[in-house]
């Protein structure tokens, strides 16, 4: 399995650490309440098909990536830097 | 028998090898199978279940029968295919799965009992009495089962792993593969050509067709020469592509040193990870047998294999050969044998409409219904359109048609399609992104079509990656289409084998259908069809045809089972190359490593690091003696310890303080410059992630320390929080763990020792201060922190100066009655002081549990704060950190459970457990830490400690975990 | 038809013509009292105990493929009761007791082999953690023995005690731990359920769950609509998809776990060995193959197949721990889709929809749970009450914080 890091180019999967679905990007406010936090940390759509999930180029540039990927075929559709989204003002 | 003038072996280089203790002679270029056949040895193995005598069926890696043990000087390799093992002088092989000998095997009695050993019989019996399963039935079954033997000794062989990258990976070097490789090579693409065999050519070698009117070998040789001469081409022979993986990755096994006597400079095998932009699968096709009664005797072989032995090795597999086939292809075997002067008794063609014109008798509409010959074929009998036949023959060359080698196309869950014309499954298109299929692997069974398809596949694949390739002139070749009429099973009295290796017969498949195991996957699991070392390469399709028939379905509806990697079995050692001994994980050494070893300190693993356990002094016989001395030394004089393994993260930027407020439960933004603070970090789920100190070196510059174990984890966590939640903050983080060597100096004489090494004496430097310092002209950092409860400092210098500083500190400490201390003493010191480690913060503890809930600032948000407030995370039901104190010295009891005195000892009454234990020389008592239900309210209670495993039942007093200097006066001294 | 050695002999003499199907192939009825979605180990055992323990007769198991084709037929067959958290302990202990009577219960040889499981440890800290576990097991009434290095050597003399990267300090031996034949477990329960009248319906994919006024009334399937009073979702790696049909979002992420088997070998390994430090475990099947595996591939997936990094990692772990296996050749690798929960422990609970029940979150360890999971799920579906030994497997525990995190790795699904 190979992923293309936006900074480092195509790299072996071994260089990356996998975290989970992109739900982790939407951190609720401190008073959002237990449901919101449960949603954030535990509940998942867990789709069989196209998903967006978070990978860390741990032995590369130390950037966190959002990877658009198919969980059935393992096809990788796109990768982008998490930090870029934030800076571009995308509501994570 | 060897045929003069045939074959590509080097007759000038005789080679002798052993099989079952007997010495045989072959030639350079022979395999064990070809050499044994040349020596008229037909019996090469025993089957798995019935222990039936077996000979070689094929000439390739798909061989189900002729599996041997190769015996080396220190090790033996089981289940080696006689068809793949090249012979060399000194090669020693033996047969397997038989006792006492290959020709007489006691377990052959299973064959007589075969009617009771039908598919799945073991699910129906051996149930009573219960205890007999482990004691009797299972051991007997296990001994009878299995094939070859491992030696039980460490595999001392040398193996390698490697990566390779290319534009085009060509898998297989038959006509299609060579055409593809040549086309791509001339276009200048980066090409890898992988071929399982020791030579290029594929079936061009075995079939010897004419190309451009000359023997195919000529074209193969010239093509190989050209490919090898090109810098952009890597030709890999003896290399099997074993698996297709995601995004253009392939696994491949190269047999580097298995064909020669062991050589120090050659690994046995190399496992390759190939990243290919595009790939062409040209892996050819595999011939399939016909299931007819008693079709498993030595001497009954595949027709294509008989051709291979003749053309490649100059060997005839019999003196009087008979052909039994349902297709045209096998005719070639008869013709070539006759041309070589071998008698062909007859061609038995199952079809009624095939030609009967050959130079030998041809029976049409023929069926073989019985065979004879216990250890080797003697005769066959059967019927044909004109009546019955009985033929004396020592070799029956059969062909039930050919199966394209679709395996790799199915590794990513692709399913093959049924092609009626060739009565075989062919690959579905596009099922492995970037891989196309050409030649007989795709169902093209003529040389002409294979050459053309190989070329076209290469051109197309390269075009996709922007490389333009031109057609290269290809040799002229035959293009006679292949004609087949399916014949899967000849019914008759005896058993008809489908899966030779696992002894699955047509009866087993029918029985499985009769018992309701009608899905092909059920049939496979119930009968074990296709689960032997050959993975059913030659038998699966016939078996599912029999199943289809038994269930009244067609073959396409019945479908195939799943093809999985590896294509051919791969040794654990090859895929695990580099893992042996210390290779399994990196080793990390501190700068004081050598100095510690010089003092004979036993080094122990701390994560990937090595740290000294203790520093023995002459006369000390146990670790405890050294440990006690080191503890006393720190408490009374001064100790030095390398703490560089703790994670160090440098944090800078205008928003650095704000960031720390977010990641720590407590506040850092109000930390004055030049001060250090202890911090507690939670995971977002509210449980404790790590703890450590962070120093404020400047307004916008902090240095965080983490525990050794969590250094990587915390770095990743911080990067995550930074990049996802506050990427727009002015903030930079970097791990500087390896950049600094850091030493703890602790004890009443710590300040004196520092003053002896620092360039300037320490001035006012209170507890939790930090600042720059200088040692021998080298700039360093100094922190006043303590993990022992004594007055303590940590001094850090750039790593290159670590070793000399350590040696200097230790020497000067010794002069003051101090010295180095190791992990054991460090552990005692921290337990005495009630400091926690990952024994306590083990991933299930909250700040509340460890009594630090007050450190979760109510004034601000922090990571983990919301989830830490869940009802299940606080309250009396939770187990809280306590100290435990016992007057007596006892065996260690970490992991013991706590019980209220007088209560039953069982699951629900367990009140908690012990996490850390030590003998405290200072208190003359056994001290421990643990978690106790509602523990903080129970100080003073006597609690029962039960350790079933170490046979301990003790009473301890529950107390505050801080035993030593609870007010911290020493720290601040 | 009752199975016995005698039957095998008499049938053998008659040419094996008299064996009858292990189960019927019924067409789905219009309505059932209870429907179990998923014909894996847990679904089949749930149906079996619903019929056996609770007297329900009008039950169907709906399986989208063939019975036992999911994880129950692709696991590495380890059966153990070596947990240390209350909640897990009593459940797995109960399960092991059911295993010990399973052949007699089902009249099917599932080859449950209590050959002993050894968990190795490599530091004093790990030793104490395993001691805590072993003591918990004994408190529960199960068995555990703490072995030192020499003790391990007596059992497993072929490990590399001299130069392995993480030296062996000792091991925790669980004598009643072992293996079983995975397919036989599915088939045994299927045959048992069928004999009690349960309809096992294969090639029947559930595509929708019908709910009226907050109450389940039936399911939509590839073979038509079927009415039901109660529906149990027991679909392991597919739990999120099926629950979504009822509008639910589960605390589950699906991941691949790979496993491996070598070519057949004469007996060499007589235990189940677990090398936690290298994420590696191995046993030898009765057929002779070394059956082994390691950790997840770590990325969410429904592909039921994995990639080389984990393959190689597992092989490397094997080589550092027990280099004698080097010459064994891997015959086959495969993967299963694991229903990973945020604390690594399962869920057996009601849902907010009346009559809809959930059994999932088995992570990498649900094979050993097959008997008890069926037992407790049947109890729940029949009585609407959690069974005593499964009462902590609540669906809302992540929200409330009553976690069962044996690994201590936290809420990240793939770390368990
Ligand atoms: C490689 C591997 C190794 C493992 N090793 C062990 C081990 O050593 N010990 C251990 O205890 N556990 C182990 N496990 C875990 C264990 O196998 C699983 O936890 C357990 O089998 C899951 O429960 P199940 O048997 O019911 O699942 P499954 O067998 O997966 O059953 C679920 C069924 O639901 C069906 N289904 C899904 N969706 C639908 C639908 N919409 N309609 C109808 N049917 C549907 C599926 O087809 C499937 O048959 C391992 C798992 C794997 C993959
Ligand atoms: Zn990168």
From TrEMBL, chain A:
GO molecular function terms attached to this record: sarcosine oxidase activity
BP GO terms, sorted: tetrahydrofolate metabolic process
InterPro entries in alphabetical order: SoxD, SoxD_sf
Name of the protein in its database record: Sarcosine oxidase subunit delta
Organism: Fuscibacter oryzae
UniProtKB/TrEMBL annotation, chain B:
Residues annotated as domain Aminomethyltransferase C-terminal: 880-965
Alphabetical UniProt keywords: Oxidoreductase
Residue ranges annotated for the SoxA A3 domain, each copy included: 493-578
Record Gene3D superfamilies: 2Fe-2S iron-sulphur cluster binding domain, sarcosine oxidase, alpha subunit, N-terminal domain, BFD-like [2Fe-2S]-binding domain, FAD/NAD(P)-binding domain, Probable tRNA modification gtpase trme, domain 1
Tagged with keyword Oxidoreductase: yes
GO molecular function: sarcosine oxidase activity
Pfam families in the cross-refs: FAD_oxidored (PF12831), Fer2_4 (PF13510), GCV_T (PF01571), GCV_T_C (PF08669), SO_alpha_A3 (PF17806)
Residue ranges occupied by any GCVT N-terminal domain in the UniProt entry: 597-860
SUPFAM superfamilies (alphabetical): Aminomethyltransferase beta-barrel domain, FAD/NAD(P)-binding domain, Folate-binding domain
GO BP annotation list: tetrahydrofolate metabolic process
Record-stated family: Belongs to the GcvT family.
Name of the featured protein: Sarcosine oxidase subunit alpha family protein
Organism: Fuscibacter oryzae
Automatic annotation (TrEMBL), chain C:
Entry keyword rRNA-binding: no
Keywords from the named record: Cytoplasm, FAD, Flavoprotein, FMN, Nucleotide-binding, Oxidoreductase
Localization (cell): Cytoplasm
Gene3D superfamilies: D-Amino Acid Oxidase, subunit A, domain 2, FAD/NAD(P)-binding domain
Short name of any one Pfam family annotated for the protein: DAO
Rhodanese domain segment(s): 35-78
Gene Ontology BP annotations: tetrahydrofolate metabolic process
Catalyses which reaction(s): sarcosine + O2 + H2O = formaldehyde + glycine + H2O2; sarcosine + (6S)-5,6,7,8-tetrahydrofolate + O2 = (6R)-5,10-methylene-5,6,7,8-tetrahydrofolate + glycine + H2O2
Principal subcellular localisation of the protein: cytoplasm
GO cellular component: cytoplasm
Cofactor(s) this protein requires: FAD; FMN
InterPro entries documented for this protein: FAD-dep_OxRdtase, FAD/NAD-bd_sf, Rhodanese-like_dom, SoxB
Enzyme Commission code: 1.5.3.24
GO MF term list: nucleotide binding; sarcosine oxidase activity
EC class name: oxidoreductase
Protein's UniProt name: Sarcosine oxidase subunit beta
Natural source organism: Fuscibacter oryzae
